[in-house]
Amino acid sequence: MKYQNVDTIVYNNWRCNHQGTNMFQILRKLKSVNREVKDWSKRNFGNFNEKLTKNTEKIDNVEERLIANPNSYRFTKRIGGNLHQRIG
């Protein structure tokens, strides 16, 4: 499972000893975990906002094409009939 790596990141960073008050030690551990989980996320999922923008543009493009030609052969072939018959 992909997310087991996150468990390892948290475990390893939480084991580290830091000097200072208890609150300071917790703060350091949280910052360390946060930094490594962000790096892990970028490696495993990439830039989410960029992917979301690209996919939204693709959807907008398909919607525009469907509005312009709702009875296109490629579309009706995929849904198995006339669009107006299916929604009307």
What's a concise summary of this model?
The protein has 88 residues and is mostly helical. The chain has helices at 4-15, 22-45, 48-68, 73-79, 83-87.
Shape category? rod-shaped
Low-confidence stretches: none
Number of domains: 2
Query: What Rg, in angstroms, do the CA atoms define?
Result: 24 Å
What is the mean pLDDT? 83
Largest sheet: none
The helix content, as a percent range, equals: over 70%
What pattern of helices and strands is seen along the backbone? HHHHH
Report how far apart the termini are: 45 Å
Would you tell me the structural class of the helices and strands?
Answer: mainly alpha
Strand count: 0
Structure annotation, total helices:
5
Q: Strand portion, in percent?
A: under 5%
